[in-house]
Design goal:
- 42% of the residues lie in helices and 8% in strands.
- It has nine helices and five strands; from the N terminus they run αααααααβββαββα.
- It has a five-stranded antiparallel beta sheet with strand order 2-1-3-5-4, covered by helices on one side.
- The chain is globular and about 50 Å long.
- The two termini are 17 Å apart.
Length: 202
């Protein structure tokens, strides 16, 4: 999957979920896009269900196929339940942590902030969105960028205390990554076992 730059509502309607956040179009048209979106669809095969779940995860976290496959391979090498570890690794990406902290309104915006060197990790500028944040890392806004409108607006409209694995200091405009989140604490509606089953066929 290449980088998607089309209408996000179309993707949300495809999966029947607001995977990019609140979507007014999805609220009005809660059926797949296209000419036959409202017609009764035939029963999906197991492969189709598995592929759809993988695509949902990739769109949700904004990860390309090669990155996603590499992350799955890393999850396989770790001890534990592969699917849960995969979701945990996706949650630990720097762009996702910036989004969860409320520094950016969306993951795409968070990725842009990281790419443009507005984000620091442990006091050092880091412009790698795929960086895996570790326990104890402190993620914040670069000093000269703390007054950026997109950042101040995002912080004003979000609650920085809704995730138990993150701690936010509003005075420093920085958050601490306390620990890797438990799978049951991660709010994304992704059936990761279907993804494991899909890759196990390859």
């Amino acid at each position: 999957m290449a980088k998607y730059i089309g209408p996000k509502s179309k993707i949300s309607r495809k999966f029947g979920e607001p995977i990019f956040g609140h979507d007014k179009v999805l609220a009005r048209r809660n059926f797949p896009p296209g000419q036959h979106g409202q017609s009764r669809s035939r029963k999906k095969s197991e492969y189709a269900k598995q592929l759809k779940e993988k695509q949902k995860a990739k769109y949700t976290y904004g990860v390309l196929e090669k990155q996603f496959r590499n992350m799955f391979a890393l999850a396989q090498r770790k001890k534990g339940i592969t699917g849960a570890i995969l979701i945990q690794l996706l949650e630990c990406r720097l762009d996702n942590v910036v989004f969860r902290l409320g520094i950016a309104p969306t993951r795409a915006a968070a990725r842009q902030l990281v790419n443009h060197k507005h984000i620091v990790v442990n006091g050092e500028v880091l412009n790698i969105p795929s960086y895996i944040v570790k326990q104890g890392d402190v993620i914040g806004v670069r000093e000269r960028d703390k007054s950026m409108v997109v950042i101040t607006n995002a912080l004003a409209g979000n609650s920085q205390s809704k995730y138990p694995w993150l701690e936010w200091d509003k005075n420093l405009m920085a958050g601490k990554f306390l620990h890797i989140p438990e799978r049951e604490d991660i709010p994304e509606n992704i059936k990761e076992q279907l993804i494991v089953e899909l890759y196990s066929k390859a």
